[in-house]
Amino acid sequence: MKGRYLVISELFLPTKGGTAVWFDEVYRRLGDRDTHILTASVPGGEEHDREHPNRVHRLRLRHSRWLRPSSLPVYTKLLLKGMWLGLWHRFDAIHAGRVLPEGWVGVYLARLLRLPLVIYAHGEEITTWRRSPRRLKAMTFAYRRADRVVANSEFTRDRLLELGVDPGRIVIIHPGVDLQVFHPDQQIADLRQGLGLGAGQKLILSVGRLSRRKGFDQVIRSLPELLRGGLDAHYAIIGIGEDHDYLRELAIEQGVAERVHLLGHVERADLPRWYCAAELFAMPNREIDGDTEGFGMVFVEAAACGTPSLAGQAGGTGAAVLDEQTGLRVDGADAAAVAQALARLLGDEELRRRLAEAGRLRAESELAWERVAEKTAVL
Fold first, then answer.
1. How many structural domains are present in the chain?
2. What's the mean pLDDT when you consider all of the chain?
3. 322 assigned to some structural domain
C-alpha cells in the first residue's frame, strides 16, 4: 500500500537543484494521489505537475517588502494551506523538505493534526544559517521537536548533534540516482565534437551552481599545470550562478579561455550524456564563510554514469565519494593539491577505470532512488 504523506517542500521540480530532484523522485515512488506536495509556484510547474503521480499544490511564496520578518507571508501561506489539506485528507505523516520554513511550519501542523513529523537536514543550511541568532533559535526549535530528522550524510548528522538533537531521532539517508536515466550507455560523440575535442584530449566536467564554494575556480587554476605536464585537457561547466563572470575572467587570466566551456543550463535529458562524455567529474568544494557542501548528489550521478570524481574534503562529500575507492578527495582550498589530484586521475587510465567501476556498482546497489524510497518508507 502506498503511503499518504503531506510533503512540504519549497524546492520541487522543475526548480533546479538536488533537493528538488530528491523530493520529486522519492515521493513519486512512495505515494500516489493520496500523497500531497505543498510547494512553490514556479515557471513550468503546471506542465510538470500534470502527469505527476502525487497531487501537487503550488503557492506564490514571496517575501514581503513591508512586513517584519519579511518571510512571514511564506510561513503563513504554508501553514494555512497545510492545515486545510490536513483537515480534508487523511495523512500518515508530515514530511518537511528543510528546517526553515517548512520544518518550523511542520511543527505546528503536526501538533494540530496529531501527526508524526519528519524534517530533512542537508548540512549547508545549518552551517550557513546558524550564524544568525534568530535562525539558529528557529532551527533548533524545529529539529528538536521532529519525530525523525533525515540527515543526508554523517557530516550533517554531526551538525544536528551539535544543535542538541536527540541522536535516536536522527536517520542517515543518502540522496540517490535514477539508474534508468544515469547509466554509462550514452551517445556522446556530438557533445565532444561540439567542444572541438579530438582523440586523446581529456574532458573534465563540473555540474552545479556557479558559487565559490564549489571549487570550479580551482580547476581552472589547475589547467596550465596540467598542460605543462602533457595532459591535453578541456573543462566544461554546467550551471548558472553569481560566479559566471568571475570564472570567465579567471580563465582569460590563466590563459586557458579557449579550454574552459561555460555551458549554462543544459537539457536534463542531456545531463547523463555529459557525464559520460567526460573522463573525470570534478567539484573540489571548500567551505567559505560557513557555506559548505552537505552531500553532493552530482557525484552519485557521475558514478552511475561510470565517471570517477574528484571532491573536496569539506562538508559531507565523504558520503558521496569514498576516497581512493570511488574517487579522490583533496583539500579544495589548496590549488596545488587540486592540480596534483587532477593530474593523477587524468594520467592514469587504470585508476580511473577502477574508481569508475566501484562507483557505478555502489550507485546501483545502494543509491538507486528505489533504495532511498524503501528507507524513507519506514521512518
1. 2
2. 96
3. yes
